[in-house]
Amino acid sequence: MINESLLNIRSKPQTMVENKISFASSSAELSIYDTFECANRVKLKSDQLLYCGMISGKKIMHLEKDNYHREFLPHESFILAPDQLVEIDFPEAQHHSPTTCLAIEIPVEKIQKVCDHLNSISPLPKEFDEWHYNSHMVHTAHNQETQALLSRIVHIFTENHPDKSFLSDLAVSELTARLLRHQTREIIVNFSRQNPEQNGINKALAHMEANLHKPLCIDTLCKLACMSRTKFFQKFKQILGCSPSNLQQQLRIKKAQALLQQGYSVTYVTFDLGFSNVSHFSRCFKQMTGIAPSHYMRAKAVVN
Questions:
Q1: Which residues pair with 42 in a beta bridge?
Q2: Residues 247, 249, 252, 258, CA torsion sign
Q3: Helix, strand, or coil here: 247?
Q4: CA 44, 49, 51, 57: dihedral to nearest 10 degrees?
Q5: N or C terminus: fewer CB in 10 A for the chain?
Q6: Which 8-state DSSP code applies to residue 227?
């Protein structure tokens, strides 16, 4: 677990707000930030892409340019473009219970290298352009695979291993690929909403999103896409990076998060999104977000 790894490397803090411990490799820099007292509007900016993962406590992130003011909780990722300024509040930080997050600075050259690799081995169809990083803020829950990867990155950066540089490069490449996949998936889903008739995959995506409360029918999706089952699955995974059932689950949980933030009950959300019962919904929700829906609803109030 990340928390256990951090206990072994924390030292006496030099400052009470955003106390920083850094570990560098040839491919990136990992920093652990601990805050031990409440603070407001603490500025953060990097000249590299900055990946932040919350470990404990709560932050409130402010991007005035985007009129964005949201809570940042454990099991969530927050990605800032190079030179993008964010201001942070720490409403719950205490000396015995610090607010802690990790931040990984990823050089632009590294991102381009991963993009080039994806374009060579898994090119997107022409209508979706090439793999590239879009320089806007991303705030999302990360799944179990990303959580495990972050634990591995902390371990690699903090251990004295003779192959540290090589191993850290592989791990940061994997994290970058996951970020690109996630960002591109969201862009493609948004594009399908606006242009459902553009191509077969767009039609299938638009139908899927409009029927999240219904069981997934692959035959219907194949018919809309004008593809055989084999070709549809192959094309879908090439473009979206996951299976149709996995994407449906992601879209359901994302919509569930929005409904819970609006104050709808767990029971209402369960059946509105087509889950068979509250227990099934709660398991799926926690698997993807790392937190039970009832806890999420209490913690994730929109900040005005």
A1: 88
A2: negative
A3: helix
A4: 10
A5: C
A6: -
